[in-house]
Amino acid sequence: MIQCNGQVVDRIDGTDRGLQYGDGLFETIRVEKGRPTCWQAHLDRLENDAARLGIPLDRSLIEQESFRFLDQIIPSISDDGEGIMKLIVTRGSGGRGYRPPDSPRPSRIIQWHPLPPDLARQQRDGMAVMQCAHPVSVNSALAGIKHLNRLDQVMASRELRAPYEEGFMLDPQGMLVEGTRSNVFIVQAGGLWTPALECCGVAGVLRSILLQRVPGEGLEVISTRRRVTTLLEADEIFVCNSVAGILPVTEVLIEGTTMRFPVGSLTRHLQSRLPEWMDS
Question: φ, ψ for residue 265 (rounded to 5)?
Fold first, then answer.
C-alpha cells in the first residue's frame, strides 16, 4: 500500500522531482503496536533537513496523514502492529530542469514494509561486517541529511557477500564514516567512539539518541574522524539504526584482515536501555 498526499495510490507521478533528481528526503521508522517509535525525533530531523534543502514542510499535516495511514493499513496487514513505515517528502513536480519552482508543492509519500526476517538473530548473535571499496561522497552542505540520493549506498551494497550482512563505508581519505544503512560505534577503554559527520554521512536518529543518552550512563562518547583501522583496536563494535536498534558486530573484514569480537557487555547494556530511550 502506498499513500501519496493523503490518498491511496498505485503509482507515483513520473514528473516528481524526487524521482527525476532525488530531490527530497526520507525517514524509515520502526512501528511497534501500531505506532511509530522515535516519532518526534524523526519529525524533528525531517523538518530540519527540509529547511536545509528549502522544501516547505507542513509538520502537522504529515502527522495527520501518517497516523491515518497506520490506522488504515495495520488491521489488514499486520496482526501485531509491527513493521516499517517509510515516509518520503519530495519537492514535488515542476521547475525547469534542475532549477526548482519558486513555490514548490511537496509530495508526501508513505509506504509500509515488514521487518527484516533476520533482525532478531542479528540483535541476539551479532553480524559480520566488511569494508566496502566504494566511498561516501563528501559534501559538507548535505552532510547529515537523509536525502534521496543514495547511489553511494547502492554501489557499496553491491559489494556485500556472505557471510557479511553490512558494509563499512569510508570517505576518500580512508576515514570511517558509517555503514551502508547504519551508524557505527566502537567501545574502547570503557568509552565509545563514533565517526564525526560534518563532511558526509547520515546523522541517524538512533545515533543522535545514543549521543544524548549514553553520557547519562557515566560513559564518555567521542565523535571525531579516525581511520577505518581503528576498528581493529576495538573492544566491542556495534552498528545501529532506528529500525534495527543496536546490532553487535562479531566479525569485521578490514583491509584484508579478519577479526572476531564477542558480543560485549556494554553493547548488551545499551540494548537493554534502548526501549526506554526510544519511547521517551
Answer: -70, -35
Q: Sort strands 245-254 and 127-131 into parallel, antiparallel or unpaired.
A: parallel
Largest CA distance in the chain: 55
CA distance 177 to 222: 14
Alpha-carbon separation of residue 173 from 98, 136, 167, 234 (angstroms): 30, 10, 17, 21
Q: Model confidence over 146-199: pLDDT tens digits?
A: 999 999 999 999 999 999 999 999 999 999 999 999 999 999 988 999 999 999
Separation of alpha carbons 211 and 144, rounded Å: 14
How big is the CA angle at 249 (ends 223 and 159), to the nearest 5 degrees? 95
Buried b (16+ CB within 10 A) or exposed e, 46-78: beebbeebebebeeeebeebbeebbeebbeeeb
Considering only CA atoms, which of 201, 75, 82 is closest in space to residue 142? 201
Q: Phi/psi of residue 72, each to 5°? A: -80, -40
Per-residue confidence band for 80, with pLDDT thresholds at 50, 70 and 90: confident
Cell numbers given for 6: 493523503
Sequence-distant (6+) residues with CB within 8 A of 154 are none
DSSP annotation string for 180-238: SSSEEEEEETTEEEEE--SSSSB--HHHHHHHHHGGGGT--EEEE--BGGGGGG-SEEE
Asked whether 232 and 110 are in contact (CB, 8 A), the reply is: no
